[in-house]
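Field reference: "sequence" (input) and "structure" (output). Example, histidine kinase:
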Amino acid sequence: MSLSKKLALLVFLGIFISTIWVTFFTLPFIDPIINPGFQDMTSLVKFTIIKLIIITILIVTPITLLIWFLLRVYVVKPIEYFNKITKIIATGNLGRKIEYLSNDELGELGQNINTMVKNLSTAFQSMATSLRSEKIKEKELQNANEKLKELDKVKDEFVSIASHELRTPMTAVKGLISMIFEGDFGSLSEELKDPLSDIAVSTDRLIQLVNDMLDTSRIEAGRLKFLLGDFSAGDLASEILSLLKPLTDEKGIVLETQPAAEKIYTDPNKFKQILSNLIGNSIKFTDSGRISVSFRVNGEYLCVCISDTGLGISREDREKLFGKFTQISTTQTGRPKGTGLGLYISREFARKLGGDLWIESSEIGKGSTFVFSSTRSGTAAAKKVGESLQMFVDMEI
């Protein structure tokens, strides 16, 4: 039912009910006084009903129609007009306005709607301008990102080529120094031993730097190759410990491990490189006490734990520990400097092989514990590693 019909019905009911009230509850008491000719109540009621019908036809209906007409002209039609215009505005036509001039509440409502539409239009225009600006900036960022990717690719290629070119002469220098120490070029005077020893140490550092840069370049370019197979974690660890034991003996540090019968599915060279990097860091920052290598099974993974009684690492340094070219700051003197790539490379190797590397605990002055995980042989995790690295495998044992 439309609004105008509802209003007409309400007006009619209001007037009609008022008429009934007057007719039935007031006139019966007044008419006997005005018209004393009525001798009984029945005649009075009949006369009252007839009057009610006549009043309804001659007075109530015309008044209802008049009031309904006035309400329709001054209330219903403006509301219908507002409804029509707001439907047009709702379709997105924000240029349409309500043209209704009046000083009453409906006129104020029309002005408020016009103001709201104007504000919406301004907001949408501002939003559109902002979106266009954002799209332009996004395009500029995409172009800049593409250029950075190209520069990064050129940088990686340069590092790879430069590292390859540097490694060959450095290896030759190392071999020549070794031959000099062994007396292949005659006896070596005492005055030359110390300088040649310094040259040998510096050469080893340069070779390590070149190797780390090559590994980093391969990681970022996705060119790592893997030799996968099932190996004894204890045997691989024993090889590294036997190589590093002379360094711990020189510093008076105990290097210990526990037997491990677990077999892991991994690349043995990368496993040993991870372990060598971690133990090497422990040796570098431990002056006394011990370095322990232990193993624990965690579901489908074998965790290798390297604990030391060294300097420890502050919470601030832990946040940047695995970044490229990052070295732990320390006030201690005499600490040999590294490349700052060892932990980054080790963690990337561990993740590529299906595991991870993290610092489990560290306390200043009491030491640190690093842990890396590797997949156990025959597990679903090991199978997943084999499938994911299939295209990067040189050989599988």
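Residues 145-204 form one domain.
The chain has three domains: 3-90, 145-204, 228-396.
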